[in-house]
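Q: Hi! Curious about what DUF1033 family protein looks like structurally. Here's the sequence.
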Amino acid sequence: MYQVLTLYGENEPWWFFEGWQDEIRGLKQFDTLEEAKEEYAKQWLELREKYEHVHVKPNFLTAFWNDGEEYWCEECVEGLQLYLGLALLQEYHPVTIEVDRTFYQNILNDKEKAKICQRK
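A: Let's find out. The predicted structure is below.
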């Protein structure tokens, strides 16, 4: 079983610190990797539109953030950046396959194609 989930908190989605599941904001489950990849790509495009910054890891883990989205940490005595994480997992563990760079290029290319005027 594969999961595509979004997380929101002070850590990028690849850290998996104790209690990381508490940061889950959205979850969809799939029987096949292909179905999960389609959903990941769909959500990736939607999130890319909303966030200024993106950091991609090679195994379907992405962090999105905007400058100024922080919360005050009393313990640290400073503001900590908040991240929206997107992850494709297998049984709630990172997948061991790596994304080919063309995966993200194709997502962006598909988006650009959708903006082409079709008037004749």
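A: A fun detail: The beta strands are 2-9, 24-30, 53-57, 61-65, 70-73, 78-81, 83-90, 93-94.
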